[in-house]
Amino acid sequence: MGDIKSYIQLLRKFSQLPHEKNEITFMEICKYPYSRFEEICSRVLQFYFNPVAEHKLHDLLLHSLLELVQQANSLYDKQQIRIRTEEDADGKRMDLLIETPDFIVCIENKIMAAVYNPLNIYKKNCMYRYGNKKCIFIVLSARRITDINELKYIHQNGFRVITYADFFRVVKLNMGSYLTTCNQKYLTYLLDFIKTIENMTHRIEQNPENEFFFENQEEIKELIIRYQNYQNNILSIQKEQISMLKTKIIESTKAEWWVWEGWDLGISFNDKGPRIGIESSYHATKDNPIGEFKIYITTWRKKDWYPYKQQLLEKYPKRYLDEDADGRVYFHVDVIKDNNVDLILNRLTEYYQVVNNLAAEIK
Fold it and tell me: What's the domain of life for this entry (predicted)?
């Protein structure tokens, strides 16, 4: 079991790590099917590898790919390039095939899976069909392939590995000269595709944050358990106090107050009209689980607030009003410190009388 000093050192170490927030992409929002994601990526690449397609990025992606395999000087007529997906190879399927009059590029597209495909069949088929052309064989992978046997298998069959990270790095470097003429809509789609792959890679590749969690997982588990115990202890004390307050405020107001989830004390008015209510709860401070007691007047629908708004603002002019809380309105009217029970009950009774009278007028 770790001591406090070791946990402090652990948290300091974590705070020094670079923390990247990966914003969700449109492709991720669409929840692409992982079982077919490689096929989806191949179709996206097919479109952007085509230099005469509607994106008007011309040969940005093709030139960048050829640059990575030291073939940037290869000549080709953009009008004579053909890009096909799922190309048949003796009953097997090549993910992508780029064909020009002088050379072909065979791409095995791998996102997360290992390379187990029949590369020898792909190569044999291409050499048989396009033997008079220069043949380039590529494994395009989202993950860095480090397994020796996997690399040996790839290289023995004449393929070379290019990572999406390296490919997109070159695409971004070359992108500048294409930006003024491209279709901005398809540029946005391309950048979203790039970011989607980058997010996936970030989740599986080693990075400082992943390494930190792996190397310190036992200490982190223990810290989480201790923090949960700390939170549960605070909540238990708060629930006991709320239960006591409920009994006393019912005696004081002769009204039906309720408790939600054990920690939220409240009451509502005009349940069949513009519904308004009072809610209250304890909040922990550094040295006291019940250090603050917060009270707010609320409506559960924003439209129900407006009949009461003017009179409540006039009654309590210097209170914080939050009208942007997921359809609800919170009018924060009081914070009572140090669990002064008598003061809490007096204030709850006061707000009860004000809201009850106001609700009766508007009913």
Answer: Bacteria
Neighbours of 233 (CB within 10 A): 12
Q: Where are the beta strands (DSSP E) in 286-327?
A: 288-299, 320-325
Write down the domain spans for the chain.
21-205, 238-362
Residue 144 to residue 336: CA distance in whole angstroms: 57
Does 22 score more than 80 pLDDT? no
How far, rounded to the nearest angstrom, does the alpha carbon of residue 294 sit from its chain's CA centroid? 32
Counting DSSP H helices and E strands in the chain, the numbers are: 12, 11
Residue % of the chain over a pLDDT of 70: 96
Give the CATH class of 21-205. Answer: alpha beta
Q: State how far the Cα of 341 lies from the Cα of 290, in Å rounded to an integer.
A: 11
User: Which CATH number is associated with domain 238-362?
Assistant: 3.90.1150
What span, in angstroms and rounded, lies between the C-alpha atoms of 334 and 295? 5
Cα distances from 132 to residues 66, 103, 124, 126, in angstroms, run: 19, 9, 13, 10
pLDDT in tens, 93-125: 899 999 999 999 999 999 888 898 999 999 999
Nearest to 335 by CA among 350, 319, 322, 324: 319
32-61 residues labelled b (16+ CB within 10 A) or e (exposed): eeeeebbebbbebbbbbbbbeeebebbbbb
Here the tokens at position 39 are 């096929």
Rounded Cα gap, residues 319 and 68, in angstroms = 63
